[in-house]
Specification:
Layout (H helix, E strand, L loop, with lengths): L1 H15 L4 H11 L3 H9 L2 H14 L4 H11 L2 H9 L5 H22 L1 H14 L12 H6 L12 H21 L5 H14 L12
Helix pairs in contact: 1-2, 1-4, 4-5, 5-6, 5-7, 6-11, 7-8, 10-11
Length: 209
């Protein structure tokens, strides 16, 4: 719930430049009509927190690098924005992103331990390209290969998983190159949307919030 109102406050600041109670309440009221909003909040999904951090990065650009790296520590998508903008951004953006990234890695090792990290690398990384043919998955590349898969209930082959990962990375890269002459804010926002949509798993509520 805190993240929801943080999102509303960020939207109010982006649109009006202020975070007065009136603007925040109006933004929150509009968000109530987004189908994915209540779904994510009811499940306590981390996507709400990630979106709050991302939007505050747009609302307070000088802290975007740090906020987007923190968001990327929870869900990988915002890291694509950091990677795409790093070569054109001001040194402070890159410095804050690097410092925050190192801090996040250090805290992870301290509190979780290296054994859990190795376990995640063995199990968690494999799931990034797993995909699913569930009706709730709106992933564009998964929809593209669906006609060529005879058994949608069976796990995808290793080649199919690698292809999904490769397609996702190439699609984000193409979007970044196509928008290289646009403003950094537009480029970052579009890259984020592309990264979410072409991921092997893109649940419907990420497009309806």
């Amino acid at each position: 719930l805190v993240s929801f109102w943080a999102i509303a406050a960020a939207i109010a600041r982006i649109v009006t430049g202020r975070t007065r109670a009136t603007e925040v309440m109006i933004a929150g009221g509009i968000l109530q009509f987004m189908p994915g909003a209540m779904h994510m909040i009811s499940y306590g999904n981390l996507d709400v927190m990630v979106l709050a951090l991302v939007l505050w990065g747009f609302a307070v650009p000088r802290w975007a690098g740090a906020l987007w790296v923190i968001a990327g520590a929870l869900k990988i998508y915002p890291l694509f924005m950091v990677a795409v903008l790093a070569h054109r951004a001001r040194p402070r953006f890159v410095l804050r992103a690097l410092v925050t990234g190192w801090a996040a890695c250090a805290l992870t090792v301290i509190f979780i331990g290296p054994d859990r990290i190795v376990e995640w690398a063995d199990v968690g990384l494999k799931s990034l390209g797993a995909g699913t043919f569930s009706a709730g998955n709106w992933s564009l590349p998964v929809a593209a290969i669906r006609p060529f898969v005879s058994d949608a209930a069976a796990p995808l082959s290793r080649i199919a998983r690698h292809m999904l990962t490769l397609i996702s990375l190439l699609a984000v890269l193409l979007v970044a190159v196509a928008l290289r002459r646009r403003s950094m804010s537009m480029r970052a926002a579009t890259v984020l949307v592309a990264a979410v949509w072409v991921a092997p798993i893109c649940w419907w509520w990420r497009f309806t919030f």
